[in-house]
Amino acid sequence: MHSTTGSSTDLHKLIDLIRDVKIAMLTSRASDGTMHSRPLVTLECEDFDGALWFLIAADSEKALEIARRPQVNLGYSNPEDGKYVSVSGVAEIIRDRTRVRELWTPIAKIFFPRGPDDPNLVALKVDVRSAEYWSSPSSRAQRLLGMAKAVLKGDAGALGDNKTIDVAH
Hints:
- Helices cover 25% and strands 39% of the residues.
- It is an alpha+beta fold.
- It has one domain (2-166): Electron Transport, Fmn-binding Protein, Chain A (Pnp Oxidase, Chain A), CATH 2.30.110.
- Strands 1, 2, 3, 4, 5, 6, 7 and 8 form an eight-stranded mixed sheet that branches.
């Protein structure tokens, strides 16, 4: 594993991996200390400025958990392509109607039928503090070849890339 402060190349790789997966499992901590994970669609990755954005209900359990303990984790997984990302950050509920409208997508209407002006709809901003990614070759044959090389030669690097990134704020 290699750790680095987020260079432009590292951050581009991170965002490319997230963009390919799109659905994050957001993990937050309940008041009793248990951890809860639930899927959310990641919005607006194109101009990554250190934050990831989502739409959620203001009265949801996840919003209450985040208000109490804003430290969260986002997990992205695409086993078919051998891509995995874990993001640690600090979440914040944003009630700005303009921002909510900017993030609005037609798919959000499934969960928020009243549209982007629904008073219960808020933006969730996660300021990324660190991330780790694992990326193996995209084809199954290349992954199997890498696995064989790793086993036979003891070369863990043949399995793909693994990097931890600290995102400067």
